Amino acid sequence: MVLLEILQIIAAILVVGSILLQAQGGGLSPAFGGGGEFYRSKQSIEKVLIGITIVSSVLLAVFSVLLLSR
Questions:
Q1: In this structure, which of 21, 35, 39, 42 has its CB flanked by the most CB atoms within 10 Å?
Q2: Do 18 and 56 contact (CB within 8 A), yes or no?
Q3: Using one digit for the tens of pLDDT, what is the confidence trace for 13-62?
Q4: Whose CA is closest to 39, among 49, 52, 27?
Q5: What does pTM read for this prediction?
Q6: Taking the domains of the chain in order of start, what are their residue ranges?
């Protein structure tokens, strides 16, 4: 069960990180090129971040339910 707790923490960090990177003009987005001045493929980067957010959110929910049911 310790493995589930570690996986839940990792999923939570991924959710928070991907949401901060998606924020327009705020959070950590400008530090990683979120301003959009240098990257032409901004749309594809945003799609990848949205996918990471969805997958990590679902994993976080699944791990939470599994930890509740033990």
A1: 21
A2: yes
A3: 999 999 999 876 555 555 665 555 555 566 788 899 999 999 999 999 99
A4: 49
A5: 0.72
A6: 41-70
